[in-house]
Amino acid sequence: MSVRLLLEDDVRLDAALEKTGLYLQDGVTKALRLWFKKLKIPVLPMPEPSPRD
After folding, report:
1. What is the rounded CA–CA span in Å between residue 17 and residue 23?
2. What number of CA atoms fall less than 13 Å from residue 46's CA on the CB side?
3. What is the pLDDT of residues 1-50, one digit of tens each?
4. What is the pLDDT of residue 46?
5. What is the rounded distance in angstroms from the CA atom of residue 23 to the CA atom of residue 46?
6. Contact 20/27 with Cβ under 8 angstroms?
7. Contacts of 13 (CB under 8 A, 6+ apart)
8. The three-state (H, E, C) secondary structure of the chain, written as one string
């Protein structure tokens, strides 16, 4: 997945990562999980991968 951020959000993201010592992937994962928790989005089961022929 790729996303475009506004410059002001990118600067804030960089500052948050530097402050916490997290890498980008870990910081984004943590932020998404906090957001999902706040919105009460349940953890859904992962779909089974389709078998390769």
Report:
1. 6
2. 3
3. 899 999 999 999 999 999 999 999 999 999 999 999 999 999 988 888 88
4. 83
5. 24
6. yes
7. 5, 24, 27
8. CCCCCCHHHHHHHHHHHHHHCCCHHHHHHHHHHHHHHHCCCCCCCCCCCCCCC
Rounded to two decimals, what is the model's pTM? 0.72
Which helix H or strand E contains 18, and what residues bound it? helix 7-20
Q: What is the DSSP letter of 49?
A: P
The type of residue at 19 is: K
Residue at token pair 């410059």:
7
CA 33 – CA 42 distance, rounded (Å): 10
**How confident is residue 53, by pLDDT bands cut at 50, 70 and 90?**
low
Amino acid at 43: V
